[in-house]
């Protein structure tokens, strides 16, 4: 298995993996172009990275990385929005190798920590992260901005 930076030719495999993670699929052809352009952004933005795990020319996993600047830290915070391993390749060490690569990049790039969010329902992934030494350090809150609910500033 090799872990390498993703390139444009990996975009279809990256999208397949994101759908496997449960991310929204495009509603029409226009949206596929939007998704593809968002991935391309990662290739041109030095604060972002997508790494893929490849076995015999097949993309079997990915991790995405954003280097965040925090107000009270001289070093970057490495934020990991996505980590996915294809179902049939799970429990074979791919996820662990992707995280190990994040750790070594984080050290090289002067990051003070890695942070990620994992949905409450992903109990299995929580075991994976805890097994790799990640600590649950907070709760994650989100507010849906779609739909017609009354917003706080409108009440
Ligand atoms: C979570 C995920 C990335 C783990 O990847 P993986 O390649 O299967 O994990 P690995 O084989 O590298 O496992 C590393 C260690 O974690 C343990 N582990 C992995 N998945 C586990 C699970 N579901 N439950 C308990 N332990 C688990 C392994 O047993 C292994 O332990 P070991 O080092 O003592 O042998 C993968 O299951 C996945 O893609 N899940 C769906 C998407 C997802 O939930 N992503 C995270 C979003 S926050």
List the helices and strands and how they pair.
Blueprint: E1 2-5, H1 11-20, H2 29-44, E2 48-55, E3 58-69, E4 76-85, H3 94-108, E5 111-116, H4 123-131
Parallel strand pairs: 4-5
Antiparallel strand pairs: 1-2, 2-3, 3-4
This protein binds coenzyme A.
Tell me, what's the shape? globular
Distance between the termini: 55 Å
Rounded mean pLDDT score:
94
* Largest β-sheet summary: 5 strands, mixed
Helix tally?
4
Helix share of residues? 25-40%
Strand fraction band? 25-35%
What structural class is derived from the secondary structure elements?
alpha+beta
Order of strands, main sheet, comes to 1-2-3-4-5
> What's the CATH architecture name?
3-Layer(aba) Sandwich
CATH class: Alpha Beta
Question: Uncertain runs with pLDDT below 50, 5 residues or more?
Answer: none
Q: How many domain modules?
A: 1
Instruction: Report the order of strands and helices.
Output: EHHEEEHEH
**Could you name the CATH topology?**
Aminopeptidase
The hetero compounds bound to this protein are: coenzyme A
- Total strands: the figure is 5
Radius of gyration: 17 Å
CATH superfamily: Gcn5-related N-acetyltransferase (GNAT)
List keywords for this structure.
N-acetyltransferase GCN5, acyltransferase activity, transferring groups other than amino-acyl groups, 155 residues, binds coenzyme A, GNAT_dom, Acyl_CoA_acyltransferase, 26% strand, Aminopeptidase
What report would you give on this structure?
- The model has no long low-confidence stretch (mean pLDDT 94).
- The chain has helices at 11-20, 29-44, 94-108, 123-131, and strands at residues 2-5, 48-55, 58-69, 76-85, 111-116.
- The N and C termini lie far apart (55 Å).
- Helix content is 32%, strand content 26%.
- A five-stranded mixed sheet has the order 1-2-3-4-5, with helices on both faces.
- The chain has four helices and five strands; from the N terminus they run βααβββαβα.
- β4 (76-85), α3 and β5 (111-116) form a beta-alpha-beta unit.
- It has a single domain, classed as Gcn5-related N-acetyltransferase (GNAT) (Aminopeptidase, 3-Layer(aba) Sandwich), CATH 3.40.630.30.
- The chain is globular and about 55 Å long.
- The protein binds coenzyme A.
- The site of coenzyme A has 18 residues, from β4, α3 and α4.
